[in-house]
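anyone seen this seq b4? input:
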Amino acid sequence: MRPYRLLDRLLRLGRTFNKRPGPPAGVLLISAGGLGDTVLLACVLPRFLTLAQPGESVTVLLRHDAARMAFLFPPQVRVLKVDFNRLRQWDYRRQILGELYRAHYRLVVHTDYLRHPDLDEALVEAAAAPESAAMEPRPSEKFARKLAANRQLYTKLYESGPPHTDKVLRWAGFAQFLTGQALPPPLVALPETRLPPAIIPNHPTVILQPFSAVKLKQSPPDLWELIIGALPPHWHVKLAGHPSDLDKNPEFKRLLELPNVEFEGAPFAQLAGIIRGAALVVSVDTACMHLAAVMGTPTLCLASAAYVGEIVPYADQIMPANLHVLYEPMECKGCLGACWFPPEDGMYPCVAALDPDAVLGAVRDMVARRA
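predicted toks r here
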């Protein structure tokens, strides 16, 4: 038996003897997704906030890395950061699970379709709330037995549809199930009051985000150089990313030698204002693209076909007018990154198949509309 599972048994036994004082209060929403997921969750979050009773607080539990996007949440939301990479460590797991139990929430809602029975669902069990809800989990051969056993953790379970369902629409349906409020599908956008102030540059500026944590989703530097060349000569370019992105992708450093091109390594909370002041964003399918979409800035996404039907492109009902997504349709679309085919020049075949002429045409069209 793995040590953390023994700890879970001990904590479970301890909870039977350690009764919490007073009535339960407050709502805990659990989201174990990444940065991009957190941006999209922000668009639906107000619907879940109505689950709180008068005077109750709402806490959103996020992965510690994804919490960098929590500035998009309404100000009344509390954020609890958890390092999921450490949740198998005895001391850290005991600390986090103990804190959740002592918080004594009235309602716990797990917002994820994709769940891990030993990590995020352990958080649900530790909270031991009298009410708890989740969607039926994504089917998993590896965890089928444990996920089925964990159904008893929830007082409500929602059947959210087939695996290939748009993530935001899935959340919206779940929120309607829990609240009883039938609302139109939410656009991938945020109200003006929740947007940071725009940082207006001295020259029209384009944000390029060519980097992805999954390198197979990246288009080659040659394509990005063509994009830069298609811009008006007086426009400036910011190559956005984490400073380590250039170390991991040294072939992109030559783009910084082009006129009016500089690197932009601002954290997301600051980058959001820079994006708002930009004339255009061109990005791979990554958190920066989702952020640009909700900021309302004209955005061109160079996507793979891996997440068609679930994440990118968004469903027609929720697609904001400022976003244009280019991807190459393939028979294997919607593979969620489990590509069946060998890479082509270090890319998913669907990324390698992106037509440079189509990309440049889209860039020129968006520049012309901006001008």
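The two ends are 64 Å apart (CA to CA). The chain has twelve helices and twelve strands. kinda curious what u guys think
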